[in-house]
Write a structure and sequence with these properties.
This protein has about 450 residues and is an alpha/beta fold. The protein contains 10 helices and 22 strands. It folds into 3 domains: about 55 residues, Nucleic acid-binding proteins (OB fold (Dihydrolipoamide Acetyltransferase, E2P), Beta Barrel), CATH 2.40.50; about 190 residues, 3-Layer(aba) Sandwich (Rossmann fold); about 140 residues, OB fold (Dihydrolipoamide Acetyltransferase, E2P).
Amino acid sequence: MINKNMDLTVEIIDLGINGEGIAKVDGAVIFVPFALINETVKIHIIYAKSKFYVGKILEIIKPSPFRVIPLCPHFSKCGGCDLQHLNYEQTLNFKTNLVKNALKNIGKIENAENKVLPCISKNSYYYRNKFSFPIGFDNAHSFVGMYKENSHTIIEIENCYIQQKWAKVLIEIFNQFLNSNSNSVYDEQTKKGLIKHLVCRMENNQLLVCVVINGDKLNNYELLIKLLKPLFQNFGLMLNINTLNNNVILSNKYKHLYGINTIKMEENGLNYEISLNSFMQVNSEISKEIYNQVVNLVNNEIVVNAFSGAGVLSGLLCKTAKHVYGIEIVESSHLNAENLKQKNNLTNLTNILGDVSKELKNIKNFSTIVLDPPRKGCDAGVINTILNVDPEKIIYVSCNPATLSRDVNLLKEKYELIWAQPFDMFPQTRHVETLALLQKK
């Protein structure tokens, strides 16, 4: 019998959906974070339940030939990455298999392994265009940090290797600012202190810097502007006022202090602006690849873009579609989509504010629906409405293979999965983005 605090030597036979190693001992399943297939590892049981156990690696007795030295010295300590210890080609295979297994086991799709294409990648490091770093402190100084895995303990970092390279400069600048003035750092335990997070986004050499504070004033912010000016030509500085003690980083209350308010974007002739809190994928290169594939699947037809957000994909679809209907339930995103429509004079775009399951049934004669739901996938009302309105084609963009597969299973009475294309939107992590095409039978 396996007990907590027991030491064992085990063989890793598989990888779980979170990238952790899986071992079996006397029929019991043991999850071993940061272990790889075919490794022999000595572990210490840190969690014990009747159905499964979690072991911490004490020693790698026989390493995998695919084990590599992580680029980041904080790997396995902070919660940002899961797979830096695995050869990148094998990481892509792992993500391809995640989608295959989900479609096979959850979606109940026959020959799923033949319908999933190899995972597409553009970059393995330095890809994120946005970060949200918590601010920590010790007896000596204050610092930009990251949360340890499954905790709110903040560890100091000098760089984050999945962020674009400008992030390292921002960390250095903000650390200098933190330790050059009298602003305090927020303490979750006492609920006292001022500075909570540093949130930044950059695209097209335009940088938005936001300091999240537990108050309404940042002392000596002019120093931060002075430190940023020599290194960034086009930037804006703002405060986000968040006095709540919860897991939400940004509130709806901002103060603009300096420079630009938004980032101006241009993509395939489409002009639009994004703010700090606009939804935009963190990996721009992969996002463009996915959107290009979606647009190329449309040819002079009437299209519904469900969960359309701020309207960027709707605007791009206007290039190849006869008419596009974008449905979005969040009013601020709907207003952004309307602004994008007017700015680009998109006469073949109609933006609708409302719930997809209710609004979809009111749209006539469309043949294609694009689904890009949140991580939880489509709710039952959306699936039932799609089955009732009966479009010819479904283009599904998903960030969760499990909910994608569940929804494909619910639709398979009427729709056949033609193919699924995984994308490595989040290299060095366990997450995978998938584009799937379904056709009416």
